[in-house]
Amino acid sequence: MAESQSLSLGVDWSSGSWFAVAFDRTGFDHAAVFDEIGELWHRYEEVADRVFVDMPIGLIEEGEDGRECDELARRVLGPRSRSVFTPPVREATRRHGYKAAKRVNERKSGRSLSKQAFNISQSIAEVDDLLRNVPEARETFAESHPEVCFRALAGEPLQHSKRKAGGYAERMRTLATFDADAPAAVQSAAEAAGDAEVTVDDVLDATVLAYAARPGPGERYSLPLDPPTDAKGLPMQIVYRASAPLVE
Fold first, then answer.
1. SS3 10
2. Which of 7, 125, 188, 229 has the fewest CB atoms found within 10 Å of its own CB?
3. 44-79 pLDDT, tens per residue?
């Protein structure tokens, strides 16, 4: 990889590691696995143009109102809306036990905390710390969501879970329609994962995020179109690529 090369990355958190798919201006470049998000940033800080990561960025401190981007994502996903969870409040992401994190979340927001949200809370905090402490990373990273990206590229809500055979076929068809080279890119990314604990749906997720981050057909939009920022100045948004915005 040339040091002057500009890369667009899609990053998915999987079983305790970060799986990155990188595209250059011509197409798939490589894929790699990292133990920490800081390690990923160190690798790409000189060459990354955009990094779209499937992890909440922009967190609620307290209050009953959740993030508007999550509500809008559920609305546009239809039958796949359950793939969007409500992230913990910022303080709860710093608790290492589920019961302690749940208590903090209930006290700060009046809402319970799902096990799914807790299970990635340390990864949320990892990204949060990076973006709050490194201005260059803040300018490069953006929160995205694979199901929103697939929905945008498909032009309609997907019907099947990504973990089912029908869902795999549906997403591969969506990618191949968008780019004829996508099946080969998915295959190359899967091969690059090697023995790492990366599943087939992790590869699809990171790949569609990379396509959304990469310059190409359509425009980059966000849910909502005019996103608010959190108390630390981080935008509360979910970005995607489409021919037109999913919501006005």
1. strand
2. 229
3. 999 999 999 999 999 999 988 899 999 999 999 999
How far apart are alpha carbons 87 and 106 in whole angstroms?
Answer: 12
* C-alpha torsion angle, residues 242, 58, 162, 177 (rounded to 10): 20
**CA 54 – CA 57 distance, rounded (Å):** 9
Question: Are 143 and 239 within 8 A, CB to CB?
Answer: yes
pLDDT per residue as tens digits for the range 142-190 = 999 999 999 999 999 999 999 899 999 999 999 999 999 999 999 999 9
Residue with tokens 């913990």: 88
DSSP state of 92: G
Asked if residues 208 and 241 have their Cβ atoms less than 8 Å apart, the reply is: no
CA pseudo-torsion sign 191, 196, 200, 203: negative
Residue 17: strand pairing partners = 14
How many helices (H) does the chain have, and how many strands (E)? 10, 7
Cα–Cα dist 37/129, whole Å: 10
Helix (H) or strand (E) holding 125: helix 121-133
Is the backbone of residue 17 left (phi > 0), alpha (psi -120 to 50) or beta? beta
- Separation CA 45–CA 52 (nearest Å): 14
In a 13 Å sphere around the CA of 215, the CA atoms on its Cβ side amount to 7
User: Which tokens in the block code for residue 155?
Assistant: 């032009």
**Whole-prediction pTM value?**
0.95
